[in-house]
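C-alpha cells in:
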C-alpha cells in the first residue's frame, strides 16, 4: 500500500510540475516576442545584450519543453498503469528514484548501463547481424577504376 500512496503523491507532483512548466514556457515565449520588438530601439550594445538574453531564454525554453514532454509521458504511463516500471527490464523502479526524478522510465541498473555504453536506449533496437552483413557485402565489392567509367561530354 505504501508504494501505491507514493505513486499517488508522485502523480500530484507531476501535475504540479506540468502546470509550472507550461506557465514558464508561456512567459518565456512572450518574453522572446517582446524582445524582438525591443530590438528595434537602442544602440548595437543594447542589441547584442538583447540577442544574448533571447538566446538564453530560447535555450531555457528548449530544456523546459523537453522536461514537459517527459512529464507528459510519465502522466500517460500513469494512465496506462506502466508508471514505475523500467521500460528496459520491466522491474519496479524504486520509489526513492521516482521521488528524485518523477519522470524516470528506467531503473538505476539499466540507466547506468546506458550511460556506460553512451547510449540513449538505441542499442537495444540494433540488429547487429544486418550491420555485419552490410560490412561483408561492402568488402566484396571490387574497386572501381576511373578509366572504367565512360563519360559523354559532347552534350
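Residues out:
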Amino acid at each position: 500500500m505504501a508504494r501505491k500512496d507514493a505513486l499517488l503523491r508522485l502523480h500530484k507532483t507531476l501535475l504540479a510540475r506540468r502546470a509550472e512548466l507550461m506557465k514558464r514556457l508561456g512567459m518565456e515565449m512572450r518574453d522572446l516576442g517582446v524582445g524582438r520588438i525591443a530590438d528595434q530601439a537602442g544602440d548595437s550594445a543594447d542589441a547584442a545584450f538583447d540577442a544574448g538574453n533571447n538566446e538564453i531564454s530560447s535555450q531555457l525554453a528548449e530544456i523546459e519543453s523537453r522536461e514537459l514532454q517527459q512529464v507528459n509521458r510519465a502522466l500517460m504511463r500513469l494512465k496506462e498503469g506502466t508508471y514505475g516500471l523500467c521500460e528496459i527490464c520491466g522491474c519496479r523502479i524504486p520509489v526513492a528514484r521516482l521521488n528524485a526524478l518523477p519522470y524516470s522510465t528506467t531503473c538505476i541498473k539499466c540507466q547506468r548501463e546506458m550511460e556506460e555504453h553512451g547510449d540513449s536506449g538505441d542499442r537495444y533496437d540494433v540488429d547487429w547481424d544486418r550491420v555485419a552483413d552490410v560490412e561483408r557485402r561492402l568488402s566484396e565489392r571490387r574497386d572501381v577504376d576511373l578509366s572504367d567509367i565512360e563519360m559523354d561530354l559532347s552534350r
